[in-house]
Amino acid sequence: MIRTVSRCAHCQSLVVEGVRLDPVRREIIVGDAKATLRPSEVAILQRLIEASGTAVHDERLMIAVWGRKPDGGPDSAKNGIKVGICRLRGKLRLIRAPLSIRAVHGFGYALEPAHPKADTRVLRRSELTEARTAAALDEVPA
Question: DSSP code of 27?
Answer without folding.
Answer: E
